[in-house]
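Lay summary. Proteins are chains of building blocks that fold into shapes, and those shapes determine what they do. In this project we predict the shape from the chain. Here is one chain we studied, written as its sequence of building blocks.
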Amino acid sequence: GQQSRGGRSPRRAGLRPAEPEAGGSEAGGARRRAEARRGRSLRRAGLDVGGAEAGEPRGGRGARSGRWPGVGVACDCSSVSALRGLRGRLLPLLTLRYVPEESKDKVLSDEDVLGTLLQLFQALFLNDFSKQSDILAVLPEPVKSKYQDLWAVQHQRETLLGNSQPQNTFKPEEVLYKTLGFCVVRAPSSVISAGKGVFVAKGLVPKGAVVSMYPGTVYQKHEPIFFQSIGNPFIFRCLDGVLIDGNDKGISKVVYRSCSGRDRLGPLKMSDSTWLTAETDNPLAVGQYVNNCSNERAANVCYQEFDVPAVFPVELKQYLPNTAYSYDRHSLLRCVVLIALRDIKQGEELFSNYYTIVS
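And here is the predicted shape, written in a compact code that computers can read:
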């Protein structure tokens, strides 16, 4: 028989020759090499292949104890190349939870999310009422009259309460506290080497409340994001493959400013770009700095997708911290909000679970 490299035939060495595969030895060898490459790619991504139950982490980056029910090795990635591209990126890129029905897993209904955002954005608009003259000039008369009446009522209420502070001097964080009963701020995380985190600076966040938003440029699955993603730990992956780049530095910052300026219609801003600075007009736009939970610190917030409806008031879009990479007036803008899973007290840091997102 054919001699091996050691000079002994497979049979004399106690080995059984491999059976030829259908389609020839070359096809079989190519198939085995492809399977080996696939196994190495999955192991690099921290997923076990062979021997472990489907969906269990292998113990690498981001591993968790226990299982993720209903999740296979594919993990919502369409190919091995997608998994290989995850090396060195933040775990929100992985969607490790399967939601069988669109609304079944929502913590808060879209109507409630919309109501909260409208309530806060309207309060911010009235707080800056003296700066909104250009916008009011292009609004229909009924809408303009509505805001003028609301501002007059609010101004009268503040006067009766003995508040002599002018309406336009409240900081956005104070408006958030006066409107929703809490405010959140960025500060050094309580987790060692975790960088910045998000804390409840004042008040109480009730269970089920919208506590923050994930800002950034929204990319559809087919749109280019390679250069923006290099060394970028702020790219968030939605269930349907839509990506949100929440990085406030580098090329990501330039892209967001460009897209935001592109969509502007005269005095009407279609998105908020102040989250790229230290002074934000929307105090909820800090969700990209919420850190991941751990065994010692359980998650107290979760991510939830929200598509901005077409009927969203145009004058309030200036507070939306998201903009689309490509202009498409027929598609809805994707946002991601963070919902409180329990009551969160003053001084507590927000922690999410990067493996969980609901649509």
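What the prediction tells us: Residues 25-87 form one domain.
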